[in-house]
Amino acid sequence: MEKLRFAVIGHPIAHTMSPMIHRQLFALSGLSPTYDALDVPDLAKDWERLRAYDGLNVTIPHKAAIFPFLDRLDGRARLFGSVNTVKNEDGMTAGYTTDGAGFRLALESASLTLAGRILLLGRGGAARAIAFECALRGRKLELDVVCRSASLQGGRALVHELKKLSPDGKFRALDYETLGAENRRYDLAVNCTSVGMYPNAGESIVGEDVIARTDAVFDAVYNPVETEFLKIAKRLGKTAVGGMEMLVGQAAAAHQIWYGGEFRREDVARIVAAAEQETVQRFGV
Fold first, then answer.
1. 41, 25, 82: which is closest to 58 by C-alpha?
2. Which of 54, 81, 179, 193 can bridge 122 by disulfide, Cβ–Cβ 3.0-4.6 Å?
3. Are 42 and 118 within one domain?
4. DSSP-derived 3-state class of residue 190
5. Confidence at residue 284, expressed as pLDDT on a 0 to 100 scale
6. Domains in the chain, number
7. Do 67 and 110 sit in the same domain of this protein?
8. What are the residue numbers of the active site?
9. What distance in Å separates the CA atoms of residue 70 and residue 56, rounded to the nearest whole number?
């Protein structure tokens, strides 16, 4: 029987934790396929080679660029405008997104729910996935999408899509100046920007004045393990959840797509802890 082959593709890719995480998930399922990390600057040039893999994980900058190369798109991937998982079945490639599932699992690990008033910082690919997850699963939801003034039109376009998906939800797009001028409280603040990512680990997308108005925070950044955004929140006594929980959660959801893999919460938690330790050892943060 031919050995199964999987890979993560992106550009650059040196920072990825995916091989370590996925190998541990495969081991929990009693499987031992190969799993490569491939730096792919040009999808068109490499696609024939890539479609020979049994499955792919997809990261920046290919999550939307991969659409034309796939034979089929899952409905949620099409809605979210993003693919992070590819399954190859009998030579046909299908694209999925598990980012929303990973985000939801990360919140559940901290006993947080998608309810109430949520502050979403950013409007890029991760923000879009989380925004749609909120709209699809949130209860009595109010969602404020915050972006820089130059990107506000894009934020408004995202809000327009969210309103069509969830007519009962309350959605706004605003810039950081408006956020700072208001005194609105939030149940959850979510950072979906790259601010605070290694090597710029000392930065936070918002200051203490905004974080003080939230009950809990989530940072999609997973390197460093504890971002400045999370440090401020913890100092203020807030519940703070880091991006490694989402990274491992979306990886586990990919295994469900590939071969029906299922994992106990405690096993996923152990992989999160191991991945965080590995990140500190590799990057010193």
1. 82
2. 193
3. no
4. strand
5. 76
6. 2
7. no
8. 63
9. 12
Q: Residues 81, 149: one domain?
A: no
CA distance 20 to 154: 35
Regions of the chain with pLDDT less than 50 = none
Range of the domain at 250: 5-98+245-283
**CATH number of residue 53's parent domain:** 3.40.50.10860
Pair (221, 256) in one structural domain: no
Contact indicator for 131, 106 with CB cutoff of 8 Å: no
What region, left, alpha or beta, does residue 260 occupy, with left being phi > 0 and alpha being psi -120 to 50 degrees?
left
With a CB cutoff of 8 Å and minimum separation 6, the contacts of 130 are 99, 100, 103, 120, 190, 192, 220
What is the CB neighbour count within 10 angstroms for residue 184? Answer: 16
Give residue 102's pLDDT: 95
Closest CA to 143 of 82, 192, 199, 177: 192
Residues 235 and 263 in one domain: no
The pair of structure tokens assigned to 256 is 């469900």
Strands 92-96 and 85-89: antiparallel
C-alpha R_g of the chain:
19
Beta bridge partners of 32: none
- 82-98 pLDDT, tens per residue? 999 999 999 999 999 99
Same domain (yes/no): 37, 84: yes
Residues 168 and 144 in one domain: yes
Please provide the distance, in angstroms rounded to a whole number, between the alpha carbons at the two ends of the chain. 42
Are 26 and 35 spatial neighbours (Cβ–Cβ below 8 Å)? Answer: yes
How much is the pTM?
0.91
Q: Could you please report the per-residue DSSP string of 49-64?
A: HHTTSSEEEE-TT-TT
Domain CATH code at residue 237: 3.40.50.720
Residues 6+ apart with CB under 8 A from 116: 140, 141, 142, 186, 187, 188
